[in-house]
Amino acid sequence: MSTLRMAAKIARRELTGGLKGFRVFLACLALGVAAIAAIGIVRAGIEAGLEREGAAILGGDAAVQLTYRFAEPDERQWLEDTAVQVSEIADFRSMLVVDRDGQTERGLTQVKAVDDAYPIYGTVRLTPDMTLQDALANQDGIPGVVIDPVLVDRLGLSIGDAVRLGLQEFVLTALIDSAPDEAAGGFGLGPRTIVATEALEASGLLGAGTLFETEYRLKVSEDQDLTALRTAVEERFSDAGIRWRDRRNGAPGVSEFVDRLSAFLVLVGLTGLAVGGVGVAAAVRSYLDEKTTVIATLRSLGADARTIFLTYILQIGALALFGIAIGLVLGALIPILLTPTIEARLPVPAAIAIRPGPLLEAGLYGLLAAAIFTIWPLARTENVRPSALFRDTTGGADGSIRPIWILTTGALLIALVGLAAILSGLITLTLWAAGAILGAFIVLLVAADLIRRLSKRLSQTKTLRGAPTVRSAVGAIGGQAGETKSVIISLGLGLSVLAAVGQIDWNLRNAIAQDLPEVAPSYFVVDIQNDQLDGIRGLLAANPAVTDVQSAPMLRGVITMINDTPAEEVAGDHWVLQGDRGITYSALPNENTKITSGAWWEADYTGPPQISFATEEAMEMGLALGDTLTINVLGRDITAEITSFREVDFSTAGIGFILSMNPAALQGAPHTHIATIYADEAAEGQILRDIASAYPNITAIRVRDAIARVSEVLAGIAAAVTYGALATLITGGIVLIGTAAAGERARIYEGAILKTLGAPRRAILINFALRSAFLGLTAGIIAIFAGVLAGWAVTTFVMDTDFRVEPVSAFGIVAGGILVTVLTGLLFAWRPLSARPAQVLRARE
Amino acid sequence: MTAPIVSLTDVNLSLDGNAGRIDILKHIALDVTAGETVGLIGPSGSGKSSLLMLLGGLERATAGQVRVLDHDLTKMDEDALARFRRQYMGIVFQSFHLIPTMSALENVALPLELSGQSDAFERAEAELAAVGLDHRTGHYPSQMSGGEQQRVALARAAVVRPALLLADEPTGNLDETTGALIMDLLFDLRDRHGATLVLVTHARNLAERCDRVIRLRDGMIAPEAAAEAAE
Ligand SMILES: Nc1ncnc2c1ncn2[C@@H]1O[C@H](COP(=O)(O)OP(=O)(O)OP(=O)(O)O)[C@@H](O)[C@H]1O
Ligand SMILES: [Mg+2]
Fold first, then answer.
1. What residue ranges are annotated as transmembrane (chain A) (predicted)?
2. Which of A23, A436, A506, B149 is most buried (most C-beta within 10 Å)?
């Protein structure tokens, strides 16, 4: 290994020359690695937080949920035998009633009825400070109740006041500050009330036919295998409708969401690394260009190509490791320093700490990216011949490289994409994103070359004669391959990401905030009792501001079997099978309904139950006409045949049911109605007051409020992604600055010649600014096309909404592109403008 | 006798180098009459290039007065100097100093374009033909030999029909034959435009072709210059 030793020796000598030319190299690599590492650290922190709090969020190590019934005594006994401890919870929606001064006030609430074992993990915090047991205990024979302060405020209650749930009277003993099992949100329809289950016996609220869920929370021994326990439970409760959850995934929706968002952000981070790669490659290239004479001298002294290659790969490799290390330190420190801010903004618990996993991942990405972008220029050192010493050329290290290096680059690229796909778990998305980045890269590369050729051609045509400033600017773009390429690729890629984010964000907001309300109802009303429906319709019909009211009967049921086979085995974990679904019945199809295949039942049909199913979901689940579904409604199994498919449009926020059945199949079961009210926005407040005073049990959800909440979540996501895109753009900016700095020497020289020939400084400045502006404009235009294309693909294929080009951010991006390049250009125009021609020219003699 | 086209009175040039302030030119007094050809000779480092830069307004005198064509260069700002150059001066350097991103024709046309002449390219083409490069107008500096580049530089200096031609060792980077060709072209150029020429050179035979030779030594004009030229 004397070659290696020799190479190492030379490399060490050269590196002592300092890092001056490598600031951009280090910054690009460090920034990309830091962004990915930071994302990984936060993600791991959230995962750890969810895991740590998993049991508390869940309320136990595992939970078994039943619908509309308590466990039978033998089931209960079995659970007690299996677990260390069992806690029984019942959960339902009800109205909290207050009689005051002969008047009755009601408030919608989500009631949790608990036993003595609740909560198994954590504590319920109350004001005044007391234990839950004490708070729920009888006070002079009347049981206690604790209530969410929001509801207490709304009803104007104070501690000691009497309230009613159903027929049972309670006394308010405390306000709920927090409950451990409410941490992950849970979008209950009303504020929380907690009572003791035994106190509800006389209330009539937990009888047969009422809608409630029970949950049996289990505490198990440390070494209990949860998977085995799950299997055992599912076997024991083989009847329909149980739902299993355990602490490994206390908040499945949240962790899945976090996973996806962070995987997506990592992809954005990788784009940043690709942009940084341009800077890395450019830095290595110009470093090696300057070393041409050194290399040629080494060659003439007898060093072979291998030694030279090793010499420089050792130097660049050492620098890359240094850059990656800086990136890892930054990526680890930033989230740690921002922990209070991050944790305050997250709706979920997070335990942010430095963990090796995400750092390793980011470091690996950094290494691969560094290798991909440096092998090419490094391989060119093999082309330098000793004769370069005697030729007056800047290059020497140019021309084509050996196929082995092209193959190596390709293999590394595949490794990087593969790694990203595996680590993110989003294989399709990663491949698409990688394809998009690579595609954009190639397009930009080709565009840069095209621009260069065109500029060269244009500068020679007669059109620009007599406009020396424009002509020489255009000519310079045509003449400086390296600068044109670096600027267009780095800026173009950065702007493309920003443009794509802009397009997607706008289209998403547009779909929700603009299109929807035009057709969306004002209110979505639930819990309408059978005997209230006509009254409400009458009340609304009398109000001229109401334009339309639609209603439908509604039950809730769980699809348990498809063609007598457990549904999950047929359709996997499709969302329609997750938990219970709303089901309706109707004699005639809705007037807007479009039957896509099969036929609707006769209006007076009373034969075996039939189902009309939503077309798109049926296709996803692999259902066909003639298939049977078994649906558990209130503990009763109904098996029915699918006799038609129909289009269901969920996007208008009207009433849309996946499942509709013939009336005879369901009419007998206890059910309520839902209604949508279409009305002028100005009249919304009065409508709510009218309904609430006439029918206090009814819950009306204001659609505008719901949309606002969704928009808020979307805004948060968009902000996160925009930050990611900004990191890419900052990297692009660094590359730009690096490029401008590298071009400064040439510009100083050119400026001196131009002055000598009689160009005033203003003309030189305009010349330089024009070049930058033109490159920025080109990058911006390409970015718009790339961004619109990516935006269209994402909105159309991923989000399933219509796409329209959003012009404002698009133009903003072109303008931004020009501004950024001109500013960085001008940053480096000072010296060329102020330098004395004599000094510059003398240095070149 | 005609009035001097160039007139330097008590000119000093000092620059801050690494080793502190250096006096490069000291008490230079020099008159050049219109149509005259003056050779500047002297050992390396004596200040020849510096003096030429002063005449071209590329360097500013630390003290004294530099008058060219009735303009006091020391009182003009950078941009005024640039405009002055493109109107009255042609400068040729040892290292050609062509703009690398421009073709030969573009390089030559540039000074005329800068002063807004509409026939810039026609005149540039004619000037390139005069130096024998009419077949290479579209070539870039990197595609030409040193001699060819210097011919382009000559054409560029000539194209403005300068009253004053400044040349700093224009053959220094070239072999003897090419150098001789360039010199012939330079003198031909001077004759065609009736220009005044100040030529820095090391070559004795070139100095002999000048009307007058001035010798610099340590930044000062050596008194025996005239005598030497007469030899
Ligand atoms: N920017 C500068 N800073 C400091 N000293 C300088 C600078 N430029 C030139 N000099 C010094 O000024 C002196 C004159 O330089 P100049 O180039 O005019 O000499 P020259 O006669 O043209 O020499 P040569 O024949 O080698 O071209 C030299 O000693 C040189 O080192
Ligand atoms: Mg000199």
1. 264-288, 309-338, 358-379, 400-423, 429-451, 487-506, 713-743, 764-790, 810-830
2. B149
